[in-house]
Design goal:
Blueprint: H1 3-15, H2 20-27, H3 29-32, H4 36-43, H5 57-69, H6 78-98, H7 105-110, H8 118-122, H9 128-149
Helix pairs in contact: 1-2, 1-9, 2-4, 2-5, 2-9, 5-6, 5-9, 6-9
Length: about 150
């Protein structure tokens, strides 16, 4: 699945009423090896009505995907733990750089004139959260491509 297809898939899930994190995670379901139900359950509490000064749900969904694809899953492995922390920080830095340095959901919802990635325009997205979701998928897609080249 190419980047635009993943972005479209995330938008479609959001249009069905799923939260931002669920929508991003669902767009990468085939990559992370989870069922629809598992994706929806895992990301349930990371978006929607849980915007009380926390990281954007779309960014949270991207972090979930990154963690599932590059896990720190072995105890007493400080090198892997540091590596996954580095990956996560870089992903969040790329997301916030796209949106005026913002990462907090409440701040992003109040921001005006957010400039999403080119896929936002390509899909005709007009809603605020759609801009964040599609951009998160796009940024994550590009980052995963870079990581695969390493």
């Amino acid at each position: 699945m190419n980047k635009l297809e993943r972005c479209r898939r995330a938008k479609e899930y959001h249009d069905l009423g799923f939260n931002c994190a669920q929508s991003v995670l669902e767009a990468f379901r085939d990559r992370v090896g989870l069922t629809e139900e598992q994706c929806r359950g895992l990301a349930t509490g990371l978006g929607g009505g849980f915007r009380c000064g926390s990281i954007c749900g779309a960014a949270s969904g991207a972090v979930l995907v990154l963690g599932l694809l590059h896990p720190h899953a072995t105890q007493n492995d400080p090198a892997r733990k540091a590596y996954t922390a580095k990956l996560t920080k870089e992903l969040l830095a790329r997301f916030s750089a796209r949106f005026q340095g913002l990462l907090d959901c409440r701040d992003l919802l109040q921001a005006k004139d957010l400039q999403g990635t080119e896929e936002v325009a390509a899909l005709g997205a007009e809603k605020h959260c759609e801009t964040l979701i599609i951009s998160a998928v796009s940024i994550l897609y590009d980052y995963l491509e870079e990581l695969e080249e390493e």
